[in-house]
Amino acid sequence: MASLQTSSLLFSSPSRCSSSNRTINAAIHVPKLPRVRFTVPKQTTKLVLEGLQLKEQVLKHENIDLYNNNQSAATATPTVSTAQLYALLEAVADRVEMHANIGEQRNNWNALLLSSINMITLSASLMAGVNAAAGTSVLALNISSAILFSAATGMLLIMNKIQPSQLAEEQRNATRLFRQLQSEIETVFALRDPTEKDVKETMEKVLALDKAYPLPLLGAMLEKFPKKFEPAVWWPRNVVQSQNPRKLKSQKGKNVNGWSEELESEMREIIQVVKSKDIEDYERLGSLVLKINKILAVSGPVLTGIAAVGSAFVGHGSATAAVAAVAAGSLASIVNAFQHGAQVGMVFEMYRNCAGFFNKLEDSIEATLGEQDLEKRENGGIFEMKVAMQLGRSLEQLRELASKSALYRSNGEPIDEFGCKLF
Description:
Order of helices and strands: HHHHHHHHHHHH
Oligomer: single chain
Distance between the termini: 156 Å
Low-confidence stretches: 1-30, 36-44, 72-76, 239-250
Number of helices: 12
Mean pLDDT: 82
Radius of gyration: 48 Å
Structural class: mainly alpha
């Protein structure tokens, strides 16, 4: 038995040993998971916290800025005067466009009517001459020439009544003055906030311009042949305030708001020069052009009327009728070409507008000097510069003109120089 046990142990021990060895090997070769510890650096944690705090502060400041912007937008609501002046600015811009378009249209009227009437008149004269040269009366030529002369007479009456060249010049002046008013309104917006006074004055200027340069023809057209030459008036008349001697005496010798006694004397001398030289000269020239235009406006239709009557009797043995028809028709073409080709009506309107410009300058200076509260006046230096620019002079030339006017007036002699060098 002992020997059997011993032999069984001998045969079984290798298997056990190998089994034991495999178990040990398995235990040794199984990898063990390392224990990893994630440690947050202190510096990184500090940066993250600072970033969160900074982001919170930025959001807080953005909210504050947004609130302030909303508050400022709420407080920056335009006033009633600002809104009204913007509405007037839009109306003025629209009037600029309307007057420019209508002025171009009426200028085309002048060119088209002039060429059409001259062609009709010359064609009728040619028919009358051919009929007279034929020696016998050709009824077709008689009727055609008479109809053409009659049509030319009617068209001339209408053209001389409305004066298209003068109408075009009126619209050009209106366009320029409305643009000037538009610039004044924009200047107010650029310099300060508009007031109720600005709105009132602007509206008065718009209405005065509408009255001075109307758009429609029927019922509102300006008289083209007035009995007397009168300068154009496109501004609201200023009411000169009564003087206050006490206030003037208390401000004597002082320079307040750019004004002094020397500057006031200078402005009064400029008024005298403008009244005695510039306004008087333009009124004289305007009256002369008005007379010439009246004569031409009557002569044209009369000559075409004579030609129409004479052309009806051409070819009936009367040489006088043929001469009258041809000669009157030719003269009518010449008169029409001179009157409307040279745009005599436009020249009359130009003189009327220039005389109005000097009247406006005079009214502006008198209204400014009539305001006794110097603080309420426009700054004296700025006003002097504006007057100088309107007259086409420098400040030194303006002061020299005032000194020269005072010297001539003290000697009792009229000054020999015009105030304006611009036109």
